[in-house]
C-alpha cells in the first residue's frame, strides 16, 4: 500500500531534517517541497513528511521575516 501524498500548497515538515516546506508538486515517488518564503526545492519521500502544526508554520514564518530584516534573503 502506498503512502498518501499531501496536497499541493499544504505545509509539511520533512521529518529527516525538521525543515518546514510547502508542497509544490509530486514527481514520481517524491513530494517536491520548497522552503517557507521561497528558495530551492528538494525532493522528499512521502513517508517522511507530516503536516506542519500552526506553531511550526509560525516559527518558519518568523525565521524568514527575521532573515529578511537582516538582509540575508531578498
Task: Tell me the layout of helices and strands.
Layout: E1 11-14, E2 19-27, E3 30-35, E4 42-44, E5 49-51, H1 54-69
Antiparallel strand pairs: 1-2, 1-5, 2-3, 3-4
Summarize this, please?
With 74 residues, the chain is an alpha+beta fold.
Strand content: 25-35%
- CATH class designation: Mainly Beta
Helix content: 10-25%
Global Rg: 13 Å
- The CATH architecture category equals Roll
Q: Describe the biggest sheet?
A: 5 strands, antiparallel
Notes on the structure:
It contains one helix and five strands; from the N terminus they run βββββα. The chain is of the alpha+beta class. It has one domain: SH3 type barrels. It has a five-stranded antiparallel beta sheet with strand order 4-3-2-1-5.
Characteristics:
five-stranded antiparallel sheet, 74 residues, SH3 type barrels, 22% helix, elongated, single chain, alpha+beta
